[in-house]
Design goal:
By secondary structure, this protein is of the alpha+beta class. The chain has a domain of 137 residues. It has 13 helices and 4 strands. The chain has a 4-stranded mixed sheet with strand order 2-1-4-3.
C-alpha cells in the first residue's frame, strides 16, 4: 500500500464514499489536480462540490481507469463480455452506466477514458437500444463538444436502427432529434450514405 502522503482521498457522492488513489494517478485529470488539497494530519484529499454530485458506484469505474488505465478490457469491452449480457435489461443498464461514466470522464477531462467508453458503446450498439437516445440528450446538449468521440457512435447507432428506435419509443425519438438539430443533421447525412459495414468479432481460441 502507498504511504499516506502519496495517496489522495477522493470524497465522492452524498453521503461521501472515500476512494484512495495514487497522487500521480490523480494528476491524469487536470480538473482533479486543480482542486487537490493537503492538510497536516489529513494528507492529500479532494472534497469538491463536483465530486459530491457523482454517483459513487459509477465513479468506481473512473477510479479503476485512473489506477489501472484498463477500464475497457477489465470491466466492459471485450466481445466475450458483451455477449454475456443476454437479457435486454442487463444490456440497457450497461449502456446507461457507460453513458454516465462518459459524462464524468468529460467533466474530469479524461479524454482517454472517453475514447474507451465510446469504443465500449460501439460494441454494445449492434442491437437497437433506446438507451442510446438517453445518452444523446446529454451528449448533444448545448455547449457539448461536437468532436467528442461518442458522437460518431451515437450517429451510427441511430442511423443503423432508425426505424426500430422510432417503433420502440417514437415520442422520445422525435423529442431527441428535435432538441438536437446537429445530431439530426448528422444522422440524416449518415443514412444517405447507406448502412455501415458490420464488424464481426472473432474470439481467440486459446483453450
Amino acid at each position: 500500500m502507498l504511504p499516506s502522503y502519496e495517496s489522495v482521498k477522493l470524497y465522492v457522492g452524498q453521503p461521501s464514499t472515500i476512494f484512495r488513489v495514487a497522487k500521480d494517478a490523480v494528476a491524469q485529470s487536470p480538473v482533479l489536480e486543480k482542486v487537490l488539497c493537503h492538510e497536516p494530519g489529513e494528507g492529500w484529499y479532494i472534497m469538491s462540490p463536483m465530486l459530491s454530485k457523482f454517483d459513487a458506484k459509477v465513479f468506481r469505474s473512473v477510479v479503476d481507469f485512473l489506477t489501472t488505465a484498463n477500464y475497457y478490457h477489465s470491466l466492459v469491452g471485450t466481445p466475450v463480455r458483451v455477449r454475456s449480457l443476454t437479457s435486454q435489461g442487463a444490456r440497457a443498464a450497461y449502456i446507461l452506466r457507460n453513458g454516465l461514466v462518459y459524462q464524468i470522464a468529460g467533466r474530469l477531462q479524461l479524454r482517454a477514458l472517453q475514447d474507451l467508453v465510446a469504443e465500449t458503446l460501439r460494441v454494445l450498439s449492434t442491437h437497437p437500444a433506446t438507451e442510446f437516445l438517453t445518452i444523446a440528450t446529454t451528449i448533444s446538449a448545448p455547449g457539448a463538444a461536437e468532436d467528442a468521440p461518442i458522437w460518431q457512435v451515437l450517429v451510427d447507432h441511430i442511423a443503423d436502427h432508425y426505424w426500430d428506435l422510432q417503433k420502440a419509443d417514437s415520442k422520445r425519438f422525435l423529442e431527441v432529434m428535435m432538441a438536437c438539430p446537429e445530431l439530426d443533421r448528422r444522422v440524416t447525412a449518415r443514412r444517405a450514405r447507406g448502412p455501415r459495414r458490420e464488424v464481426v468479432f472473432v474470439e481467440d481460441d486459446d483453450d
